[in-house]
Design goal:
The protein contains four helices and two strands, in the order αββααα. A two-stranded antiparallel ribbon has the order 1-2. The mean pLDDT is 81.
């Protein structure tokens, strides 16, 4: 592993990194607890609230003058499914587990990176690996959670409507996914170049 002490952080920078680590632990704990509660709700098998997205789904709502119905296009809604098939519950549980694993890995890698920076090492092969692992796991974790949650949502729509509605969607927003991948690539490339320049500079000294 190549790493070199690259300077001492100011007190303000060190305090900011420590605050970042504390916030990371709090975020990881919150999401983990939320996911566990969600898993327990899913495993109960009854009266499960599920967020569902729709495409071109018109509905009537009494929002006009004098309570008259007007037509709206339903984009998303929360359905409460009285019961769900085992495969749907399994998909929902897997999605929550993927969320837990992803957030713990991402926060863990970033905290190790922060620790390395606090010790005076910014660019190194180890830090580059930490950045890339955090980015890739976060990206794949986001996609997995989205995929399994959409499987659960479609099952909820089928259960509540008895298959009368078939336009709930399974999708991952491509722009968000591509933008996140681009940002991760830029950050990873920055660390790779920084590490190489650091080693080349050391060779000239």
């Amino acid at each position: 592993m190549t790493s070199t002490k690259q300077g001492t952080l100011s007190r303000g920078d060190a305090a900011a990194l420590i605050a970042f680590c504390i916030a990371g632990v709090a975020i990881a704990a919150y999401i983990t607890v939320f996911s566990i509660i969600r898993i327990v709700t899913l495993l109960s098998g009854t009266m499960i609230p599920v967020m569902v997205e729709f495409v071109d789904q018109p509905i009537e709502a009494p929002l006009g003058a004098g309570g008259a119905n007007i037509t709206l296009e339903l984009d998303r809604a929360i359905l409460t499914a009285p019961n769900l098939p085992g495969i749907a519950i399994g998909a929902g549980v897997i999605g929550q587990l993927a969320q837990i694993v992803a957030i713990i890995v991402v926060i863990g890698c970033l905290m190790l990176l922060a620790r390395s920076i606090l010790s005076g090492t910014v660019f190194s092969r180890r830090n580059t690996r930490l950045v890339m692992v955090a980015g890739i796991v976060g990206l794949l974790g986001f996609a997995a959670v989205r995929f399994f949650d959409n499987m659960l949502a479609n099952a909820a729509v089928s259960a509540v409507t008895e298959n009368a509605v078939d336009n709930a969607v399974i999708s991952i927003e491509p722009f968000t996914f591509i933008l996140a991948a681009f940002i991760i690539s830029v950050i990873g490339t920055t660390f790779v170049i920084g590490d190489r320049l650091q080693r080349e500079t050391e060779g000239l000294v």
